[in-house]
Write a structure and sequence with these properties.
Strand order of the largest sheet: 1-2-3
Radius of gyration: 13 Å
Number of domains: 1
Number of strands: 3
Shape: globular
Strand content: 15-25%
Structural class: alpha+beta
Length: 83
């Protein structure tokens, strides 16, 4: 995953009983970080948080667009101007 970039992994969740409908993944670091996809288990979240990524689980009751825009605004605050 590129530095100062974010992605949605809703289409890459392959486990039927996964507790979230989507995951927003944000790389706020200046280094690329490899993200393992597809998502098979809930431990994936903690494994990727340990790598330095922000992982925001989106449940069925959550508003995806609101969470996406909030994460994007936070990322814009720290993103270097020349990115």
């Amino acid at each position: 995953m590129r530095p100062y970039h974010m992605v949605s992994l809703g289409g890459y969740i392959v486990e039927w009983d996964f507790p979230y409908r989507n995951l927003i993944v944000v790389n706020k670091t200046s280094e690329p970080i490899k993200v393992e996809i597809p998502v098979f288990h809930e431990e994936w979240i903690s494994e990727h948080r340990d790598l330095g990524l922000d992982v925001i689980p989106v449940s069925r009751e959550d508003n995806f667009l609101r969470l996406w825009k909030k994460s994007h605004a936070e990322l814009d605050k720290i993103r270097p101007q020349n990115e």
